[in-house]
Write a structure and sequence with these properties.
mainly alpha
Length: about 80
């Protein structure tokens, strides 16, 4: 059976499932073929893998003394029309 190509949008939609190994064998093969030909999607995959590794390792970083105050001061200095969400 010939492999059906997959678009970048479809790859991006399934990257998390790909990393979690929660996709069909057929989809995995299509995505791997796509990664072999698409540098952009390969970069997205690598970046996603890095983010998952950084967030998932549970490491907490100690902020320098006064960091919170400086951050909140900067936020308060923002013009009123800048979203603060």
């Amino acid at each position: 059976m010939p492999t059906i190509e997959i678009s970048c949008v479809e790859v991006w939609r399934e990257i998390s499932n790909y990393l979690d190994e929660d996709i069909s064998v057929d989809l995995r093969e299509r995505m791997e073929k796509h990664f072999g030909a698409c540098a952009h999607c390969t970069a997205v995959l690598d970046g996603t893998r890095n983010v998952v590794g950084l967030v998932g390792d549970g490491t907490l970083f100690q902020m320098p003394e006064g960091f919170n105050k400086r951050l909140y001061d900067k936020i308060r200095e923002l013009p009123p029309n800048v979203p603060r969400e």
